[in-house]
Amino acid sequence: MAFLRSPHAHARIGRVDLASARAMPGVVTCVTAADLRDTVRPLRAASRMTGYHATDLLPLAADKVRYQGEPVVAVVAESRYVAEDAVDAIAVEWSPLPPVPDARAAMAAESPLVHEEFGTNVILTRAFRHGDVDPALAGAALVVRERFRFRRHAALPIENRAALAAWNADGLTLWSSTQVPGMVRDALAESLAVPGHRIRVVAPDVGGGFGLKSSVYAEEIAVAALARRVGRPVKWIGDRREDLLASTQAWDEEIDATLALDGHGTIRGLRASVLADVGAYSIVPWTASIEVIQVISFLPGPYRVPAYLGEGAGVATNKAPMGPYRGVGRPVATFVMESLLDRAARRLGLDPREIRRRNFITEFPWRSPSGIVWDSGSFAETLDEAARLADWDGVRAAQSLRGDATRRLGVGVASYVELTGIGSAIPASPGADIATGTEGATVRVDPTGTVTASFGLACHGQGHETTLAQVVADTLGARLDDVRVVHGDTSAGPIGTGTYASRSAVLGGGAAILASRSVREKALAIAAHQLEADARDIELQESAAWVRGAPDRRVSLREIARSAYLGARRLPKGLEPGLEATRYYDPFFGTASSATHIAVVEVDLALGAVTVLRHVVVEDCGRVINPRIVEGQTIGGVAQGIGGALLEELVYDDQAQLATGSLMDYLPPTAWEIPPIVVRHLDRPSPSTIGGFKGVGEGGTIGAPAAIANAVSDALGSLGVEIAELPVTPDRIFRLLASRAPRTG
Amino acid sequence: MPEPVSISLTVNGIAREGRCEPRKLLVDFIREDLELTGTHVGCEHGICGACTVIVNGEAARSCLMLAVQAEGAEILTIEGLAKDGKFHPLQEAFRQHHGLQCGFCTPGMLLTALDFLRVNPHPTELEIREGIAAVLCRCTGYQGIVKAVDAAAKELGRTTG
């Protein structure tokens, strides 16, 4: 299948002439929205936010297109080559409308409307208030203000999105490159009016996601609807252009922020107003709010902020929809708060590390100004250790040696705390009815003694096959090699939504522990019966059980499992046969991962180029299941943060046309741009989650941009340059330096 | 539509034949006609390197070649890298040093590294970074890959003298 996608950012769809395309050899069908109207229902992301306007998710645009790349016609053909030929043969009568190119323009009274029926382009607002911020600002010894800008970003998994739908008498199977097979199943049931138990969604070996694959997409609905219509399997494999044009995008926020402090650098108050360009639609199931709400939720960071006002507005424009991306809001919030603190430190003549130490939260649990409960945090400890590993003092010494060199050194720090393993107390948005707070695990020992642990999660590179197997093996007392982890298939495991929001270790690991404990308890009872001992005296490790102190009196997990299924004559009286358990876990509030990043950079004044010389992360992600996997997640996240800080930007022009629609123009870092990254773990088990895990999937991307921005500001401080906009490309550095240069003549 | 053309080539040491349209990309021919789906498609414009295969001894983007251009060629794809059920030292090093997460770039990364070590058997870390900059990885931050290529270089140097 291939899509005819809108070449316009904003246009009415007139007559669509499909005759030539339909007549081409190898073309099976071509359909428009009208052809699917009777068989596909629109989906909407519900929320009780003030002034929230939900938008329809349909497989194809009806009447009007609202962003360049929006699918308009679906073509099913014998091959992608033929399908693309057919797309080229379709004639559409477009009536272009004036586009809404950015959030500022969208707020203007005379702006065209992306959705006329709302009467506004502001499709959501939200605010968090704590204390009285006005007097805090008015009476402060020091007030720092800045307008920050974090540009639009692509998650860019190397595997593009793809979906394949096949129907048979039992129903639909959809293979999709998704992080959230459970959500996709539920959405398809509603959209296609098919009972949920007739739908299987499989997400095998997904090639990266980073949040981009955690929403429900038009293309998934389209392949399912078209496969039903033509009675044959239908496959769509997105290409990179489609990925850059029509996958959810990230960030693109403007933040006016004011931080008030006393003369010692103690924070008195923080006020921020966030304008978010959320693109053309409110995505399913997250709504358009996810990025902006997280920015205002997490702006106060790991600091005591006695008075806070954070206001956010999500504004519709003619761009691809905003969606979750690794860190969601926290990279932007951390960039803003950490930049403000460094500005304050410079004004007060304080060391950047010292101003942080004076403001870190030190008592737990701590209720943040936005109502988040921090159960723990290792803020000062991560800061001190990171400064030591980064040789902070050595950089300062080297800076003074270099003086006015044309290549300036800078060092920058960023500390953050993130809410991870989010439970049911914190919904994705007010009134959202998606089950992001729970996850299940089924642990089954079969009669051969091997263990299958099934999850509703969907791994896409995080190594759940390893970490969750470790958790199950350790808890149950099985050999690691005997544990197989199954995920990413709605027919193979318990109910679950998928993998996103640094939740899998906490929620999946917690459910795995509960289920493994249940199975272990039963295995111990059976072993005790067979060994004629008390269950309390049985050891069970490495798939064998024995009587404590009498290791010869032993029975294997295989023998225990065989007995479990052979029934009453082999089992203790009254014990139900079988050796498996399904348990669910809800961490309720969730927990808190924290870290400090320190970047050391060199800025070439002649070229405007920033080189990251080294990057240090000291993190507390709770109990570490597998250090190598934690390190891999963190380093990978830092690399994406470096991309976001220095290189990557989705540029739309004033007609809302994407100017960076290929990898010639959109620049993720290669190995050459990434420095050696040093990661240290503090193993501080969470006080509030089963297993003590805190979650680590996103942190690298949260801390890196802020640390790099501060390092660049540090390098250019003597030239009067402070970074307020990311990515800080050579062009932006050049302009900043030019604007500060003394005028001559 | 132009008539399909016949293509004969050697893939992973085995003589293969197929028929496809002259416009068909080599990567699509490898995946669809030869059913070797280990070669991945990431961008179709020669930047990401996921589709890298070895053509007549040199790394090549199979998304930038037509299948017909591979007539008579010897091609190595990821399926041919392990021998007799045993990983190539590069594959073993990627496993040992966490050189992959989602695995999507890995086939192209491995074959790029294979070609790089052929040209530069004793690279420095910076040379490795430059060499593998031909392939984009979004998961690992490259650190594990750099370590793996370095380890494989040493292992290959040891075993081949």
Could you explain the architecture of this structure?
The complex is a heterodimer of chains A (745) and B (161). By secondary structure, chain A is of the alpha+beta class. Chain A contains 19 helices and 29 strands. Chain A folds into 3 domains: 2-97 and 159-207 and 213-246, Aldehyde oxidase/xanthine dehydrogenase, a/b hammerhead (Aldehyde Oxidoreductase, domain 3), CATH 3.90.1170; 329-421 and 590-740, Aldehyde Oxidoreductase, domain 4 (2-Layer Sandwich); 439-585, Aldehyde Oxidoreductase, domain 4 (2-Layer Sandwich). The mean pLDDT of chain A is 96. In chain B, a hairpin with a 2-residue loop joins β1 and β2. Chain B has 161 residues and is an alpha+beta fold. In chain B, 34% of the residues lie in helices and 16% in strands. Chain B has a 5-stranded mixed beta sheet with strand order 2-1-5-3-4, sandwiched between helices. The interface between A and B is large, with 40 and 36 residues.
Which architecture name of the largest domain in chain A does CATH use?
A: 2-Layer Sandwich
CATH top level of the largest domain in chain B is: Alpha Beta
Number of domains of chain B: 2
Helix proportion of residues of chain B, in percent? 25-40%
Which strand order does the major sheet of chain B show? Answer: 2-1-5-3-4
Share in β-strands of chain B? 15-25%
Mean pLDDT of chain B: 97
- Rg calc of chain A: 27 Å
Secondary-structure element string of chain B: EEHEEEHHHH
The CATH topology of the largest domain in chain B is Ubiquitin-like (UB roll)
Structural class of chain B: alpha+beta
By secondary-structure content and strand pairing, the structural class of chain A works out as alpha+beta
Count up the domains of chain A: 3
In one word, what is the shape of chain A? globular
Number of strands of chain B: 5
Give the end-to-end Cα distance of chain B, rounded to a whole number of Å.
54 Å
Largest sheet of chain B: 5 strands, mixed
Identify the overall geometry of chain B: globular
**Mind telling me the C-alpha Rg of chain B?**
16 Å
